Structures are given as structure tokens and as C-alpha cells.
Amino acid sequence: MNNFRKVKEILRKSIYFGVVVSFLAFVVSCEEDFADLGSNVISNLKFDTNSIEYDVTVENSPLTELQTDNITRQPGQYLLGVYNNPDYEKLEASIVSQLAVTSGLRVVDRNYGADTTVVTKIDTVYLKIPYQATLNGTTGVYEIDSVFGDILKPFNLNVYRSNTFMNEFNPLDPTKRNSYKSNDVFEKIGTELNSTIDYPFIPNESDTIIAIKRRSHDDSVVRTDTVKITFSITNTAPIPFGRVPLDKAQLKSLLLDKLESSEFESQAAFNNYFRGIILEATGNEGSLLSLNLNNTNTDLIPSIEIYYTNTVLVSGNSVDTIIHKNNSFPFSGFKVNTFKMDEKTYPNNNEVKIQGTAGSEGKLQLLTPAVVNELRSKDWLINDATITMYINQSADTSNVPERLYLYKSYNIGTSEITSQIKDAYTEANFGGIGGNLNRDDNGKKDHYTFNITDYISDIVSGEINNFPDLKVKAYNRSDEPFSLSDTIFTNFSWNPKTVTLFNSLNSSRKPVLKISYSERK
Questions:
Q1: What does the alpha-carbon distance between residue 115 and residue 254 come to, in Å, rounded to a whole number?
Q2: Burial 349-381 (b: 16+ CB within 10 A, else e)
């Protein structure tokens, strides 16, 4: 590495690690001179600052599958529902999850005498789906904030019992952790658990309470309970939640009648008996919910809710006591998001489609070998390097991602290896690689800009000689590295948003790599 590049490397390391801060301050204050750096002395150097632009080749890169389980890394969100935009692939998102049980559950809490009979009546059984919502400070009402698509039209929702046992470790190699993909198929056992087949599900932020009619042994209503969900004891504003009526007879047989059996002796025993719940969304219209299944408040996690009433009869039909009960079975343990996509083929034109989940990404080629050799022949200090990609504003921009993300991708045999671009972790405290949405002067969604200064610097300096493809995707929080040493990229995607970008065939809004540099006069 020549003297000029040594200067650059020392400066960059001083920024990253806070080394020789006073020396750095001195260097910044000197507009044109460097002195006594390393073992060489460079004095009275004067520089010109300039920039150069290169076209970036971008093409569609469809996805077929993604890792969507929580075994090795917890996805931030899980999707449920249907998103059907004619410009993109139709998405049907379903959820598979284990259920949590509490030890010592009993339908009847005490033993009665021989002259006593306890009659159990199920009042209601439903699937509870709490929405993600934000409290409106003006109205004091929670408003749903994580729904995409047409919320006025329903999608079909069916609930099944899963017969696929979810393992933490790979059954073929128990020394390795297991993983589940977005296109994995989970075996169903029995018929639908919902009382209405193809239940028409529409999210509604007015659904904040449910009235439970409590019934005695003769089916007469003895009282009505009002059930709501709140964020905390002090914040009593009701949170909206969806509810899907379930089949009383099936849930009584599968759960209530088994409470005191060996299947409920432990969580492991229950997981082997009731291996999971499948929420399957289908249809050609409707909306897509983004759900938080990792909430520390268990009231805000989806669950199966069973409300029932025990009527204690003595001496035949004389009512002694009426006891109202509720058992809750929240989603817990291993969870998987499955995506059914319509595998749309996009034309080879001037557009690139970016769609979250297992939709489509973009594949970028930045610099040809000839351009790299040309750059290396120059004695440049790379000050800044950015990629700008422009949105086709004539396409649907109603649900564009607020941020896109870049990562490296290359193949070893048939396996795709992915890793972080250097700037993602070296510049983590300064925005990483960027990729945030920018608007034009009229407020229209216009472009995304990525910062890849370190990556380009390493190419120009010769520090790296392999140039894998870069891929651009809809951003998720889990995309970013956890630390300065975290170079691994795991491609999760629960972000369903979509955007159409221009590629290099568009003359005025084509993607551009801009390199700003300094050179000796």
C-alpha cells in the first residue's frame, strides 16, 4: 500500500476506534498538509477533490424461500393474511406455533362427595389475535398500525392442529440446530378447528371487547362477562383484537378433557401430543397483519381462549354452586411463518421489483474488472462512495419500504453464502450503509441512497479481490449486524412492503455509483 493509502487507513482506523484523537483533530485542522505519518514523511501535499460516476447494473432476483423460524434468531414480526397487488406477487402468509400450557390445570378444582354432580358447559372458545396498535393521544383510543392491503375485504382464515413435530435440532444431524423455511409444509391432523370454515377475517380496531355469556347446566344464561385487553394496570384503554370462533366440541375433546391426563404432565409431553396450531390464510383479496409474537405481556400474544362454567348439583338437580373458569393457551415455543407466493415472472424491462417476504430482491453488479484496474492505477483517497437507486413514481408507491438494505451474496457449489458489507458494521454508529427512503422537492417518494465507502476503498486499495454480487432487499431490523465483529448476514424478511426501482436501461433515473475522491495536484 503506498503512502497515500497509509494515510487514509490511519485516519479511518482513528475514526472507528477512537485512537489518537488529538492527532486526528490536528489532521482535520490541516487543510492541505500531512506530516510524519507512519515511517514516511509527506509534507506540503496539495489535493484536488473530485467525483466520478459509474452505471450500476441491476436485475430482478426472485426468492423461493427464507428462514422464518425463531430457533436461531427471533424474527421481529410474523405476518398473517393476504396481500394481493397486481404489480407484485400475491402473498398468503400463515403462522405455525406451539402452545404453552400451565401445570396442574383441572376442569373441576376440588373433589366433591358422592351425592354431588358437576356439569361443565363451554361458554365460548375462540382464537384471540391482538393487533399491534398505537394509542392516539388526542382520542385516547388505540389505532391499528401494522396492517397492509385492503382492510375492507376479508381473507379466509382456517385453524388446524399440526401433526408436524418441531425439533430444535436437525433430526438428520443432531449436532446442528434445526431451521424451517417459508415454504415448508406442516402436516394437518383432523378437520378445521374454527366453527365457520373459511372464516372471513377483517381486522377492525373497534373490536376491543367480547361479551361472554355464562351458562349453567340447563343452558340458561346466568351472567355476562365483558372481556378486554389492556396494555397495563395503569393504562386501561382497551387494545383491539381479532377473534375467531372455534368448534366447542373439538376443543373440549382436545384440551379440556385431557387436562388431567399424561398429555398435560409437562410442556414436552403436551408438545408431543398437541404439536402445534396452524393459522392458514388464503384468498385473492384482503389484508396482511404484522403481529408481535414475542411480547413480554402474554395478554398481547395470540392464544386459544376457553371459557366454561361448572355447575355443582347436589341431591339430583339442586344447584349448589356455579363456578366460572377460563383457560388460556398462548402461542409459545417454536414458531414459523410460512409464505405462499404466486411466483410471478417479471418482464426484462427497465424495472426491478423489490418485495419483502419471499418475493423478489435486486442483484447489483458495480464495477467491471477493467474499471477496477483503472481505479487501482490512480493514487486516489476515497472520501465517499454511494449508490443511489431511483423509484418508478408511476408505479404503486402506497406501501414502499421506508428503508432498503444491501448485503453480499456469492455461491459455493449450490449453496448461497451471504455476508454483511463492511460499512454495515464499521459505520454502525453513523448509520451503517444507510438505504433510507428520500423524497423529492414535491414530497414524492423518490430514491434510496446507500453508503459503501469502506467497501469501495478496499476494492480500490486491493485489500479485497473478489467482488461478489450485492443484493438489495426490503429492510428488517434483524438485517443489521449485532456488533463490529458480526459479518454474518441472515436473510429474514417479515417486511411485506413493495417498491419498483429503475435499472440501468432508464436513461434519466438509472442507478448510479458515485465515488468522491482526493488526489495529488
A1: 29
A2: ebbbbbbbbbbbbbebebbeeeebeebeeeebb
The model's pLDDT over 121-150, given as tens digits with 9 standing for 90+, comes to 999 999 999 999 999 989 999 999 999 999
> Where in the chain are the domains?
1-45, 46-63+345-520, 78-341
pLDDT value for 494: 85
pLDDT recorded at residue 126: 98
**Contact predicate 320/117, CB 8 Å:** no
- Closest residue by Cα to residue 290 from 71, 492, 126, 130: 130
Tell me which residue of 517, 502, 491, 280 sits closest to 406, measured CA to CA: 491
Q: Say which amino acid occupies 144.
A: I
Kind of pairing, strands 241-245 and 116-130? antiparallel
The whole-angstrom separation of Cα 427 and Cα 250 is 55
- Strand runs labelled E in 356-458: 360-365, 380-390, 404-412, 415-419, 434-439, 445-451
Q: Give the burial class of 194: count Cβ atoms within 10 A of its Cβ; 0-12 exposed, 13-18 middle, 19 or more buried.
A: buried
Q: Could you tell me how many residues make up the chain?
A: 521
Over residues 158-184, the mean pLDDT reads 94
Full 3-state SS string of 263-309: HHCCHHHHHHHCCCEEEEEECCCCEEEEECCCCCCHHHCCEEEEEEE
Given a cut of 90, is residue 275 above it in pLDDT? yes
Q: What's the pLDDT band for 482 if we cut at 50, 70, 90?
A: confident
Contacts of 416 (CB under 8 A, 6+ apart): 409, 410
Residue 449: CB atoms within 10 A of its CB come to 17
The radius of gyration of the chain's CA atoms, rounded to the nearest angstrom, is 29
* pTM for the whole structure: 0.86
